[in-house]
From TrEMBL:
Name of protein: (African queen) hypothetical protein
Known function: One HIP oligomer binds the ATPase domains of at least two HSC70 molecules dependent on activation of the HSC70 ATPase by HSP40. Stabilizes the ADP state of HSC70 that has a high affinity for substrate protein. Through its own chaperone activity, it may contribute to the interaction of HSC70 with various target proteins.
Entry coiled-coil feature ranges: 246-283
Record-annotated Hsp70-interacting protein N-terminal domain positions: 18-58
The keyword Isomerase appears for this protein: no
Organism, as annotated: Danaus chrysippus
Listed InterPro entries: Hip_N (IPR034649), TPR-like_helical_dom_sf (IPR011990), TPR_rpt (IPR019734)
Domain of life the protein comes from: Eukaryota
Sequence similarity: Belongs to the FAM10 family.
Keyword annotations of the record: Coiled coil, Repeat, TPR repeat
Comp. bias intervals (Acidic residues): 82-94
Length: 380
């Protein structure tokens, strides 16, 4: 029988030298700490290879400034995203389509006599005023409106503290479509008695005839609260559609105004943030940190062992990403020795890359001790 030969393992030579292996390991660590780097366009071949093996990669976006995994955000970027661009102000109609049927124009001035407010009314004056009021009511019922107004005026002169007299005379003015005079009398009646049902009722009707629907709805509602009346309720139902349209329009205008103020506030914040970032970048440059933030070249990063080694530290990576989003953030890392050293390293490397002369490095080699005369003995 033929003996089964044991399988022998095939020895494979590693195609990389030690330095290349070190760089490869560093690259793998970099991908572990910041997987979004795989979406860099220059690494598309490696990304395609991983996908062909069935590897699921984290979704990410990449641009010329930086590349960030989906869902990842930071304070600086968040503010920038929330600030909308300058938008054209939307026009809101200043007028509302209202039913203006029944609205009239009254150009008659409200110049009626209002009596002496400071007069001390005696009992006799009140009695005479009540008699005049009865006469005026008879004239009103007979549709003798001018006569009724004259008699009510005489009664008001006798007792200018009577809210009822002003409200009743206002009712007569309303019949004559002297709307401003009616409003003046009813307002005086409400000053004397804030619960004057007639004052609210007739002033509300006058407002409605003038096309002031919101004011009319308010007065008619107040009148119904104090004492229900079918005619007042009918007048209220007449003005409610227009009053509701005006109220909704005013709400829309207010919302539009608040939205405009919000946009302006956000735009001011965006401009201030941009100005602060530019100032911080200039300050960083003046302190030896050139404008490499947000512009780190991946190809240079992978070729330079020092940069690659520094990039393996997750804390340093997060700091670089934080600074790339908003250069002013470098200030908060100045007291962190590790990150400050890394920033100096990146600054020095990118300064050299841009063609600037690197700053002279301190000579760290040990200097020979000073010679003594005895040191030369035996050198012949």
């Amino acid at each position: 029988m033929n003996k089964i030969q044991p399988k022998t393992s095939v020895k494979m030579n590693c195609p990389f030298n030690e330095e290349q292996l070190t760089q490869l390991k560093a690259f793998v660590e970099l991908c572990k700490n910041q997987p979004m780097i795989l979406h860099h366009p220059k690494l598309s071949f490696f990304k395609d290879y991983l996908v062909s093996l069935g590897v699921t990669l984290p979704t990410a976006t990449y641009n010329t400034k930086n590349f960030t995994a989906s869902g990842d955000s930071n304070a600086g970027a968040k503010v920038e995203e929330e600030v909308p661009a300058e938008e054209e102000e939307e026009d809101i109609e200043s007028d509302v389509e209202l039913d203006m049927e029944g609205v009239i124009t009254d150009s008659t001035p409200a110049d009626q006599e209002m009596g002496d407010e400071t007069k001390e009314v005696s009992d006799e004056d009140r009695d005479l005023s009540d008699e005049k009021r009865s006469e005026a009511m008879r004239a009103f019922s007979e549709q003798k409106y001018d006569e009724a107004i004259q008699i009510y005026t005489e009664a008001i002169k006798l007792n200018p503290q009577s809210a009822l007299l002003f409200a009743k005379r206002g009712q007569v003015f309303l019949k004559q479509n002297r709307l401003h005079a009616c409003i003046k009398d009813c307002s005086r009646a409400l000053e004397l008695n804030c619960d004057s049902v007639a004052g609210y009722k007739f002033r509300g009707r006058a407002y409605r005839l003038l096309g002031k629907f919101e004011e009319a709805a308010h007065d008619l509602c107040e009148s119904l609260k104090i004492d229900y009346d079918d005619q007042t309720n009918e007048w209220l139902n007449e003005v409610k559609p227009n009053a509701d349209k005006i109220r909704q329009h005013n709400i829309n205008v207010q919302r539009h105004r608040e939205e405009k103020e919000r946009r302006e506030k956000l735009n001011r914040a965006r401009k201030a943030q941009k100005a602060n970032a530019e100032a911080a970048e200039e300050q960083a440059f003046s302190q030896g940190f050139p404008k490499f933030m947000g512009k780190i070249d991946l190809e240079q990063l992978l070729k330079d062992p020092e940069l690659l080694a520094a990039s393996q530290d997750l804390e340093i990576l997060m700091a670089l990403q934080d600074i790339s989003s908003n250069p002013i953030n470098f200030l908060k890392y100045q007291n962190n020795p590790k990150i400050a050293a890394a920033l100096e390293l990146f600054a020095r490397k990118y300064k050299c890359e841009s063609g600037a002369t690197p700053e002279p490095q301190a000579d760290t080699k040990p200097k020979p001790a000073n010679k003594t005369p005895d040191d030369d003995v035996g050198l012949d």
